[in-house]
Amino acid sequence: MVFFYTCSDPRYQIYMGRDKFENEDLIKYGWPEDWWFHVDKLSSAHVYLRLPAGESIDDVPATVIKECAHLVKANSIQGKKETNVVVVYTPWSNLKKTGDMKVRRACACAWEGR
Q1: Can you tell me the distance from the alpha carbon of 70 to that of 98, in angstroms, rounded to the nearest whole number?
Q2: What is the pLDDT along the chain (114 residues), one digit of tens a residue?
Q3: Which end of the chain is more exposed for a tag (fewer CB within 10 A), N or C?
Q4: How many CB atoms lie within 10 A of CB 54?
Q5: Beta bridge partner(s), residue 37
Q6: Distance, CA of 24 to CA of 82 (rounded, Å)
Q7: Which stretches does DSSP call E strand in 24-92?
Q8: Residue 15 and residue 57: Cα distance in Å, rounded?
Q9: Closest by alpha carbon to 15, among 45, 42, 40?
Q10: For residue 14, what is the enclosing H or E element?
Q11: From CA 36, how far away is CA 30, in angstroms rounded?
């Protein structure tokens, strides 16, 4: 079952897969407006941020980006034990079942335990 999260900004929708099966569904059924978030170099949940049509990632408030980063960190077995992790995010269209993905940005995230 893919999880849906209510975001602090109602214009955005957040989805999360917690295991490989849910993550596969998210990859398979993603939309062009989706952005994928993951803890870099560690196992973690896949979080997808769905943008409103016509909006770019540059329009997304920093608080929404941080919410996604906190979700992937909190749902990473190793990452949640670390003070800081690097969270990568990229458009859904970049996701391929190879090891190569273009990463548009990286976000350093300190988990505050909330």
Answers
A1: 26
A2: 688 888 999 999 999 987 888 888 888 889 999 999 999 999 888 999 999 999 999 999 999 999 999 999 999 999 999 999 999 999 998 887 655 444 444 555 544 433
A3: C
A4: 7
A5: 47, 89
A6: 26
A7: 34-39, 46-50, 84-91
A8: 16
A9: 45
A10: strand 13-17
A11: 9
Using alpha carbons, list the distances in angstroms from residue 71 to 17, 38, 48, 51, 111.
11, 9, 10, 17, 10
What single-letter amino acid sits at 17?
G
Q: What residues pair up with 46 in beta bridges, in sequence order?
A: 17
Angle made by CA atoms 40, 23, 93, in degrees to the nearest 5: 75
Residues 6+ apart with CB under 8 A from 8: 63, 64, 67
- Distance, CA of 15 to CA of 6 (rounded, Å): 9
The pLDDT value given to residue 53 = 92
What is the phi/psi pair of residue 101, to 5°?
-140, 140
Q: How far is CA 104 from CA 11, 78, 99, in A?
A: 22, 23, 16
